[in-house]
């Protein structure tokens, strides 16, 4: 095996592409001669101080360019060596040639399935203009958002999320990520510890890192946060904030029962901790089966995030944060002024019009119906390879896989033309569930999704076959 330490230039190109470029350059220069075995991905990642996911994607890109031959259990070799034609990996490559970059199916972004909305947007803007309601869209507005938009948000939360709140307790945000950054920066100081599930939303990890906060992962079971583990973590860290995704947890799709939510609330009250509840995927939960939000059980200590982008239309860039009525507002208002001064009004005005006209409900119902079709397709194709999600309309699924197997599946899927979120993107602590998230709404249509899931099924079967052979 070659002791290879590539020189990676510093520029704006994605890091995995720079690593693949370095590999191609060294192969051309003879530094990596044909037939030489490259370092294992984990070793190279450690040597270079990179994530395993970055190195995995770089190796997959090098395979796509025809630079490498990869054999599960044996390693990656500079092309020119004689491949083992009986290896399952080679058989799979013959059936699934390297993907054309133009046809890559990206299932990394957890977006709602596409619904034709352009005409609805046009009609809303036309009617807003006809009734002289568009003026705020070209002006600065108050920091917490327009009153009509927050009134529409309060009506929406009561009807679709089961949370009653006063419009005056809502903050209109520029999407869920803006809301997370606003709350974390307003309630925490650099160096503070924030508790969360052992794996969590990647955007929350990015925000915490940017703000100099420490995320402490709390052990999960099949219902989400483990109450006993949370109790211990609060006693050990004295953290003042808990960030949690109780409904269709991202990435594992687990949902807390009513009893579990009540247990979390009891512990939060005992330790006097504030809860930040990210309920972005509440829109996909069956109202007849969905427990009330944690914010309804502990309104005095819970900030509640509802993302319109996730359940209705991502392009509106709209989310709401419902605040506890007695919570001081000054730091949040300073955060609003620091990170955007005021939210953009047009998306909020369109949403408010859609709520009044019934369009928002129709769109949300259509999104859920399409999500249900896609989830059923995933069940049919992937079967027991996927966990049973915590709702009938889940927009993403979870594939439980051992860490090394998850990395290999992601790499081979990328080579075959399906991009998945790197396994480490959501991991906060070592006891986090290991696997891959698959975002079903990201594919443009059902046919594209079916093609991607079929490729993924083949990759998983190949991985299982090689793992079983190596055990035998």
TrEMBL record:
Keywords: Aminotransferase, DNA-binding, Pyridoxal phosphate, Transcription, Transcription regulation, Transferase. GO terms for molecular function: transaminase activity. It comes from the Bacteria. Pfam families: Aminotran_1_2 (PF00155), GntR (PF00392). Residues 13-81 form the HTH gntR-type domain. Gene3D superfamilies: Aspartate Aminotransferase, domain 1 (3.90.1150.10), Type I PLP-dependent aspartate aminotransferase-like (Major domain) (3.40.640.10), Winged helix-like DNA-binding domain superfamily/Winged helix DNA-binding domain (1.10.10.10). In the C-terminal section; belongs to the class-I pyridoxal-phosphate-dependent aminotransferase family. This is PLP-dependent aminotransferase family protein. It comes from Nguyenibacter vanlangensis.
């Amino acid at each position: 095996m070659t002791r290879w330490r590539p020189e990676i230039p510093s520029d704006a190109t994605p890091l995995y592409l720079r690593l693949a470029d370095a590999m191609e350059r060294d192969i051309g220069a003879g530094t990596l001669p044909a037939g030489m075995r490259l370092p294992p991905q984990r070793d190279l990642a450690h040597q270079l101080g990179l994530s395993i996911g970055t190195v995995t994607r770089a190796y997959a890109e090098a395979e796509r360019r025809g630079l490498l031959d990869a054999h599960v259990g044996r390693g990656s070799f500079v092309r020119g060596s004689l491949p083992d034609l009986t290896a399952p990996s080679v058989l799979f490559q013959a059936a699934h040639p390297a993907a054309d970059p133009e046809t890559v199916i990206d299932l990394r972004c957890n977006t709602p399935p596409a619904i034709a909305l352009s005409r609805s947007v046009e009609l809303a803007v036309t009617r807003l203009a006809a009734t002289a309601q568009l003026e705020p869209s070209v002006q600065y507005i108050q920091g917490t958002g327009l009153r009509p938009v927050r009134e529409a948000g309060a009506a929406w939360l009561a009807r679709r999320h089961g949370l009653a709140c006063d419009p005056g307790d809502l903050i209109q945000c520029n999407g869920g990520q803006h809301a997370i950054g606003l709350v974390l920066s307003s309630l925490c100081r650099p160096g503070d510890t924030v508790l969360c599930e052992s794996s969590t939303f990647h955007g929350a990890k990015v925000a915490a890192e940017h703000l100099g906060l420490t995320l402490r992962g709390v052990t999960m079971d099949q219902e989400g946060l483990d109450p006993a583990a949370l109790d211990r973590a609060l006693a050990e860290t004295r953290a003042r904030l808990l960030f949690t995704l109780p409904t269709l947890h991202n990435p594992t799709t687990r949902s807390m029962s009513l009893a579990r939510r009540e247990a979390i609330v009891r512990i939060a009250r005992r330790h006097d901790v504030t809860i930040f509840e990210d309920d972005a995927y509440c829109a996909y939960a069956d109202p007849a089966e969905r427990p009330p939000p944690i914010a309804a059980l502990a309104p005095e200590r819970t900030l509640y995030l509802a993302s319109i982008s996730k359940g209705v239309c991502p392009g509106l860039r709209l989310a709401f944060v419902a605040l506890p009525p007695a919570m001081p507002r000054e730091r949040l208002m300073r955060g609003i002024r620091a990170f955007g001064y005021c939210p953009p009004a047009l998306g909020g005005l369109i949403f408010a019009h859609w709520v009044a006209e019934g369009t928002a409900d129709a769109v949300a119902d259509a999104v859920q119906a399409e999500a249900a079709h896609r989830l059923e397709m995933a069940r049919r194709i992937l079967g027991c390879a996927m966990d049973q999600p915590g709702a009938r309309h889940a927009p993403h699924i979870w594939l439980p896989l051992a860490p090394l197997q998850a990395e290999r599946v992601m790499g081979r899927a990328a080579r075959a033309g399906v991009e998945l979120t790197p396994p480490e993107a959501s991991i906060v602590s070592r006891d986090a569930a290991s696997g891959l998230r698959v975002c079903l709404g990201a594919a443009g249509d059902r046919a594209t999704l079916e093609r991607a899931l079929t490729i993924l099924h083949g990759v998983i079967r190949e991985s299982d076959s090689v793992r079983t052979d190596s055990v035998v």
